[in-house]
Design brief:
This protein has 141 residues and is α+β, with helices and mostly antiparallel strands. The protein is built from three helices and five strands; from the N terminus they run E-H-H-E-E-H-E-E. The protein has a five-stranded antiparallel sheet, with helices on one face.
Length: 141
């Protein structure tokens, strides 16, 4: 008979409400940087390079939410032993689309960038309307 041991996964989570304005993406980058920098001692180490990746993902998802949503958005960040999870909630029920890159295009690349950086990306409808866009970024061992 095998003994069952509990694995305790260290996790730190924070949530921010951001207004429906273009400056929210920049504010979200700053909040993300501070959270990941100050949560290092409580959870797992997040390298400076990975912090930059997470900030880029946050910026793109928040920019999409404030551009296409009808009100502000909610940003949730979670750090566990092996990953950083970014969730952005908005009130627009329409799922975002990844568009092909074009030389002339000045927009529409954000979700493709997120897909490249994230280990996992999904979109889910939420109760009461709207959606949650979640990106999971693996942390180096």
């Amino acid at each position: 008979m095998r003994a069952q041991g509990r694995t305790h996964r260290r996790s730190v989570r924070v949530e921010y409400l951001l207004p429906d304005e273009a400056a929210s993406a920049g504010r979200a980058r700053g909040l993300t940087s501070r959270f990941l920098t100050h949560s290092r001692h409580r959870a797992t180490r997040v390298t400076a390079e990975r912090i930059d990746d997470v900030k880029l993902v946050v910026s793109e998802l928040v920019a999409n939410a404030t551009e296409h949503g009808k009100s502000g958005c909610r940003l949730r960040l979670q750090v566990t032993d092996g990953q950083v999870t970014v969730e952005v909630y908005d009130d627009n029920p329409v799922a975002p689309r990844v568009r092909a890159f074009t030389a002339e295009g000045e927009s529409g690349r954000g979700l493709a960038i997120v897909r490249c950086l994230a280990q996992h990306l999904d979109v889910r409808s939420v109760t009461g309307g709207g959606k949650r866009v979640r990106a999971v970024l693996a942390l180096p061992a």
